Write the structure tokens for this entry.
Amino acid sequence: KKAKLWVKPVPTLGQLYKQGRWYGRNTFRYFKNTKDFSTLFAVLTYASLVPLFILGLIYRPFFILFAFPFLLVLIYTLRGLWITKSPYAFVMIPIAFVRGLGQLRGLIESTYRRGGGKVN
């Protein structure tokens, strides 16, 4: 009852993409310092959605690989629906794609850029 939650809403998909990029850029450094496997797993799951979907369109067996992260996002969405009883929980699916695309770009950028910092 006394728990406090601080949330910074992201009003546009562009800002959501930028936030995902920032998370992606800083994921490996964060993991190196904390050994937080759950965060690393979540970032890699979201970041794999778009590439596996595109590869699945080109070569069908990749849809099997796409199914795994998509099912995780769907389960997370259904859990949100169960808790909130709101159909807006299904907005999580396109949000996962946009944020995951940003995280993928951030992960790639982190391999050739030093430090995190602001994303332009």
Notes: The CA atoms of residues 33 and 106 lie 18 Å apart. The mean pLDDT is 86. Helices lie at 13-34, 37-58, 61-84, 92-110. DSSP finds four helices and no strands in the chain.
